[in-house]
Design goal:
This protein has about 325 residues and is an alpha/beta fold. It has 2 domains: about 160 residues, 3-Layer(aba) Sandwich (Rossmann fold); about 140 residues, Isopropylmalate Dehydrogenase, CATH 3.40.718. It is about 40% helix and about 20% strand. The protein is built from 11 helices and 13 strands. Strands 10-9-11-8-7-12 form a 6-stranded mixed sheet, sandwiched between helices. The radius of gyration is 20 Å and the shape is elongated.
Length: about 325
């Protein structure tokens, strides 16, 4: 893997006044010389999840350990015209047993990551929270490649924590900062979102935003620049921030958006995906290993990007990340 910063100019196209950056291609290219991550792929019994696992393996991102009912796995592979004979697989009777086996492989040191297949998220996460928890709160981070934004945009938490309290949000912020580091953002700019940019007792999220910023000042959150509360426009648009008189290194150019709750985060991520053309990869952090949490609506490309980010995250635990970001 190269140690010099990656030249983003080769990954950038100009559409009029709009800059389009293929951040996912850059991240996947950065994994070119890394060893594949042994990954327990839990119940990949539909075409999308099995195809994503096989293509990620062929790209050298993961070493898949396929877990599911053998008949379903083989039937899915046949219908999708996939050759899964090179990969180890474990025959289990149903999706719950697949989740349990995936966690067992992690505990045995045979898998360094988990990848969700066609089972429900709650089914996998119940096994994870029961057996793979750490002192850190488990949270999900979306990594968005937006056509109109000049850098990757991380959003958390939009998939795991429904109404996180202040202590949970502290871990949500730290998990997102840690992930930003591993994709090459040395000092990520973190915007704590609310409906307004002033601290207002009637809006609890503004109070929590102010508290999180103070926690960062006192060293309870490290590795990033925090600002909040910020409204969405002030977080991502420099002109909007200037108009409101907000003088901050974060306002207008955030790398990370921390949302008030799961509903807000989920709606924001899906709006950006389906209305603004964003591609959204995702990773769950805070457990013993990263979890590639995909959706049936995900494209094969975004699933592969999630695998690449997991690979970078695993490697970052062993040596500094070498991916450059704007």
């Amino acid at each position: 893997m190269r140690s010099e910063p990656i030249d983003t100019a080769s990954d950038t196209l100009s559409l009029g006044a709009q800059r389009v950056t293929d951040d996912f291609a850059r991240l996947m290219n950065a994994c070119e010389h890394l060893p594949p991550v042994p990954t327990a792929v839990v119940h990949p019994c539909d075409e999308g999840s099995l195809t994503a696992a096989v293509e990620a393996a062929e790209a050298g991102l993961i070493e898949p350990l396929l877990i599911g009912p053998a008949r379903k796995l083989l039937d899915t592979a046949r219908k999708a015209h996939l050759n899964i004979s090179p990969y180890e697989f474990f025959d289990v009777p149903h999706s719950h047993a697949a989740a349990a086996k995936g966690v067992a492989l992690v505990l045995a040191g045979e898998a360094a990551a988990l990848m969700k297949g066609s089972l429900h998220t709650d089914e996998l996460m119940s096994e994870v929270t029961a057996k793979l928890r750490t002192e850190r709160r488990i949270s999900h981070v979306f990594i968005l490649d937006l056509p109109s934004y000049p850098r990757p945009l991380l959003i958390s938490d939009a998939a795991i924590n429904i109404f996180p309290d202040l202590a949970a949000k502290r871990d949500i912020v730290q998990n997102a900062i840690d992930l930003a580091h591993c994709i090459g953002i040395d000092e990520p700019r973190v915007a704590i979102l609310s409906a307004v940019e002033t601290v207002t007792p009637k809006i609890p999220s503004t109070l929590e935003a102010a508290a999180l910023c103070k926690m960062a000042e006192r060293g309870q959150i490290t590795g990033g620049l925090l600002e909040g509360p910020l409204a969405m426009d002030n977080a991502i648009n420099e002109e909007a921030a200037r108009t409101k008189g907000i003088d901050s290194p974060v306002a207008g150019k955030a790398d990370i958006l921390i949302v008030p709750d799961l509903e807000a985060g989920n709606m924001l991520a899906k709006q950006l995906t389906f209305l603004a053309g964003a591609e959204a990869a995702g990773l769950v952090l805070g457990a013993r290993v990263p979890i590639i949490l995909t959706s049936r609506a995900d494209s094969v490309r975004t699933r592969r990007a999630s695998c690449a980010i997991a690979q970078l995250y695993v490697q970052s635990r062993q040596r500094p990340a070498l991916v450059a970001a704007d």
